[in-house]
Write a structure and sequence with these properties.
The chain is an alpha/beta fold. Helix content is 37%, strand content 17%. The protein has 2 domains: 126 residues, translation initiation factor eif-2b, domain 1 (Four Helix Bundle (Hemerythrin (Met), subunit A), Up-down Bundle); 212 residues, 3-Layer(aba) Sandwich (Rossmann fold).
């Protein structure tokens, strides 16, 4: 399994792999304030919903240690408020960011204020560890759910990067693909390049090849052709936020893949931890969709490719309706044909062994 630090606590700093430099260079940044972590999230140094949740948690930790240098502040919640707001506002769609901040927030209150930084660190480490375990559980459950062909082979299509780089480790969608290697004799992957930010070409291809997984890169527009030719057995993607009714926001281009999968009777799996499910958002229509800079669309590798003066619309995510999702794969259970009742029931189920 590929080994790198997506976002970890090391020597009193937040250490993160700069994903903007991949696949050419492995550069690590060491960050010392919540604002610096928020800037790194916004700039896509670290990306992927669970990974930015971990990064935000360590962002709060580093902020607390920074503030505690001259003794604990008179009010931790007040002292931490600007850093927490910066983290929360760094990207709007992935709910894991808010989820992680809210999980740490109660630790700012209570007795022994001088122990707040250590308490936050302990909880942030738990978030990271739990995410790795959740990814492994999702992988196992998702791989078991997949239909087995007579030839014991499977070819996946995946979009964006929902791998080790997008989580604390192992990955959600790529976790299912990794785990499928234990069940199937042959596993192949078609990775979409994922315009406009190229997470598939730069990150998924790099990550899967490091693991020795048979990976073929395609442009986003080739997916329908492959499905029509019978070259794909299942589509597996991640999610940035799943609404209470099972609608799932993920990287722009996911929704058309779900329509194609439906047309070609292929399983369309959305793998995400429970921390990505937002019961407070009723349907996908209410999920805020990030809009990113026009240059991501007009430029390629720093060179302008679009006609000067053209208008650009650059939504970073789209929403796949629950009706087009064959199954939600979580660490607790696989939920076939998700709906509001099944999503709510997930939170009552015991954790899978
Ligand atoms: O803009 P990004 O690269 O942060 O988008 C990432 C995705 O869309 C992933 O599929 C999603 O966050 C799930 S990551 C396990």
């Amino acid at each position: 399994m590929a080994n790198f630090d997506v976002a970890v606590w090391k020597n009193g700093k937040v250490r993160m792999l700069d994903q903007r430099a991949l696949p050419h260079e492995e550069i690590y940044l060491e960050l010392t304030s919540a604002q610096a972590v928020a800037d790194a999230i916004r700039a896509m140094v670290v990306r992927g919903a669970p990974a930015i949740g971990c990064a935000a948690a360590f962002g709060m930790v580093v902020e607390a240690f920074r503030l505690a240098v001259q003794g604990p502040p008179p009010s931790w919640p007040e002292a931490m408020a600007p850093g927490m707001a910066a983290l929360r506002d760094s990207r709007p769609t992935a709910i894991n960011l808010v989820w992680a901040i809210e999980r740490l927030r109660p630790l700012l209150y209570g007795n022994e204020p001088d122990r707040v930084p250590d308490r936050l660190l302990c909880e942030a480490e738990s978030i990271r560890q739990e995410d790795i375990e959740a990814c492994h559980a999702m992988g196992r459950l998702g791989a078991d759910f997949l239909p087995m062909s007579a030839k014991r082979t499977i070819t996946f299509l995946t979009h964006c990067n929902a791998g080790a780089l997008a989580t604390a480790g192992y990955g959600t969608a790529l976790g299912v693909i990794r785990a499928a290697r234990r069940r199937f004799d042959q596993v192949k992957v078609y990775a979409t390049e994922t315009r406009p930010y190229w997470q598939g070409a730069r990150l998924t291809a790099w990550e899967l090849l490091r693991d020795g997984i048979d990976t073929t890169l395609i442009t986003d527009s080739m997916a329908g052709h492959l499905m029509m030719r019978g070259m794909v057995d299942a589509v597996v993607v991640g999610a940035d936020r799943v609404a209470a009714n099972g609608d799932a926001a993920n990287k722009i281009g996911t929704y058309p893949l779900s329509v194609l999968a439906h047309r070609h009777h292929l399983p369309f799996l959305v793998a995400c931890p429970l921390s990505t499910i937002d019961l407070a958002t009723a349907t996908g229509a209410e999920i805020p969709i990030e809009e990113r800079p026009a240059e991501e669309v007009t430029h390629c590798l720093g060179r302008r490719i679009a006609a000067q003066g053209v208008q650009v619309f650059n939504p970073a995510f789209d929403v796949t309706p629950a009706a087009l999702i064959s199954a939600l794969v979580t660490e607790r259970a696989v939920v076939p044909a998700p709906d509001s009742a099944k999503v709510a029931a997930l939170f009552d189920e015991p954790v899978a062994d």
